[in-house]
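User: Some background: our group keeps a shared notebook of sequences we're curious about, and every so often someone picks one and asks for a predicted structure to add to the entry. Today it's my turn. The entry only has the sequence so far, pasted here. Could you supply the structure so I can complete it?
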Amino acid sequence: MDASSWAGHEMSGCSSMEVRQRRSIARAVTSLAANPGISLSAALGPAVRQAVHRITEDDYIGIDELLHGHIAQSAARASGCDLVVVAQDTTVVQYEGRNATIGLGPVGTNKSSLGVFVHSALAMTQRCLPLGVVHCRVWARDPALHGKREKRRMLTVNQKESRKWLDGLAGIESAFPPEQRLLVVQDREADIFAFLRSERRPSTHLLIRAAQPRRVEVIAIGDSHEPRESKSLARMSLFDAVSGAPELGTMDVDIPLKPSATPQPAGKERIATLTLQVVAVDILAPRDESNDDRATAWIVQAQEKTGSPDALSWTLISTQPVETLEQAIQTIGYYKCRWQIERLHFTLKTGLQIEKLQIDDVDSLAKTLAIYWVTAWRLMHVLHLSRAEPEKNPQAAFSEDEITVLDALTKKQTATLQEAILKIAKLGGYEHYRNAPAPGIKSLWQGLRYLEAMVAGWLLAKQNLQHV
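Assistant: Of course. Here's the predicted structure to add to the notebook entry:
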């Protein structure tokens, strides 16, 4: 696998690994991307599977070493971006009945439900185009602590799993140069005061969906995006403060389908009209913390005022100034990018079927999962690149052999990336008709599997002809 292939390019920066190890990992990533939905052994073949096994068993190679090259390439792809949006989130990977895997821990209320937790960060452009995975951590809970939730509440944030948000932030910043502007996006679980007050670069800001009715002081904002030195206007709960703020205007957003294992009927997406309100506040430290610490933030509320119990309502905490309708609309758009990491998890579980992996121990499993995270990014990147830059040359995402075989299968030359994606999706069962929705991840991975089987036959035929 040479560095000109997409996988070889992604792994070329893993300087702590030997050349043959980088080649083995690149072959593994390529095979997994081309053969989603089947077992690891079947996708890799005996030789590559054995090489990957040796790498994951090597104590000197961890997740950071495996992902080093991909993270460097992700940062390089972001070099022209004024702002990089990074979503971080945690997903549970369950291995029911997999008692033979050493080191698995409880992942639910039932102690016999075993698995691991994976916390990762996905970097994107402002238009939500996935640039790469820039942080990944895997761990299993200690079975001895199962059912002792009350005791965990007595611990500091550095002693809890909540530490993952701070570690994730540190990992994200280390992936990019200091001057790169970053907006790190999180859902409700990250509404932690210690995270809001965590040290970060001046060029890094946080966007968190509010979960707690935190005590705040409403403040007046001057022309310089900095709180005035004048007295606070009021002290109240965060949600009351933003609900009482003037309405800036409205915006329409497309509400996507939730990821599902089965195809969804067309036309289920809907457009929601959201009313926007913004207020600047100082968020006060929790009452159980004996300090006067505070965090300045802008609270953005986007609410669908239809009276329906299913009406959309987001309340967001932004450390980046939000003072105008345009900035509020931008902030909502950035938060929508967070859905991409949920799509990443959907691709991993339903498409690449990571919960069917059979690995001997958690340490080796964690490294294998890191490889799968890069594979899932590849599938998402190709799909979204075709939507963002449909007229791009197809060789921006596919090899010359893949394009040659695709042209032969469809009996038509592939001129653009969008055409390539449409052809591959059709191979995967996608039905194209007037007003049809765009191809999704599922049809893409099924089409890629079919295409790569054809490519393998094509390459074998070429090799045989060379020996004739």
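Suggested note for the entry: The mean pLDDT is 83. The CA atoms of residues 117 and 139 lie 5 Å apart.
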